[in-house]
Amino acid sequence: MATTCTYTFVLCLSLAFFMCSTAASSNEADILLSFKDSIQDPKNSLSSWSNSSNAHHCNWTGITCSTSPSLTVTSLNLQNLNLSGEISSSICDLTNLALLNLADNFFNQPIPLHLSQCSSLESLNVSNNLIWGPIPDQISQFQSLRVLDFSKNHIEGRIPESIGSLVKLQVLNLGSNLLSGSVPSVFVNFTELVVLDLSQNLYLMSGVPGEIGKLGKLEQLLLQSSGFYGQIPDSFVGLQSLTILDLSQNNLSGMIPQTLGSSSKNLVSFDVSQNKLLGSFPNDICSAPGLKTSVSTLISSMVRYQTPLVNALILRGFKFKTMSFLVISQVGYGH
To answer: Does the keyword Repeat apply (predicted)?
Structure first.
């Protein structure tokens, strides 16, 4: 009798779990279809998104689901599908959505602040769209984000200090926008940051924040072609994990910190060209192992040496099969 009761209980429990899972699955499909309703899809890229199709919604275009404990949407990747229209907050009803990638489309609207309602969202990429307007102070509401990519849009105005609240960020890309003013001194909060890209913002007028030098995990620092002026901070000696540093095409002046060489052991690319830097070049950078074996390395700067000649020092690393060598050329520009 006891065995029969136990079997009946397990059967009922399994049936209840199945019914709940089925209901949840149906609800997720409805949420996705609601999100689709706000999107213009001229190439019919989302044709698989349909209740009339035999495919489970986890097999729809761009959808990734977790498999445990049950099928649930965790990732939505709609990159480069020629989509436009509205980025609707209805997508935030997917309670386990961790990644949303809408890059390389034609969404034309202000920053979709309402996506902060996606409580599990860790990665948001809306790069290379037509997003416009300022970064609102409410950007601080994206507390769970680890990746934030707003690059290649028409975002303007100052970078708000409230962005410093996003302490979990590992990647922050605001490059190729219309940002202006000075860069706030909030980067000390980004202790987990691996990539920082503020490049191609011609209207910035800012010194390079010295706080960046405290980001010990930072691997890529891209500040090229923006309005940075003044000296390269001595604090950059703290960037011990740095592999790529690009400060080119700015208005930087003064000496290149000799201490910068001590943080160059992992460098594969270093560019300070087209600035107004003076002085000798840090020897440790010239001997960085990664620079000697990198195909893409370029170190180029108008640098004044202790000679009557102003030179451009160009270091390129090449690697062809088993042969590695370093080419150093000095091009005179006159006194």
So the answer is: yes
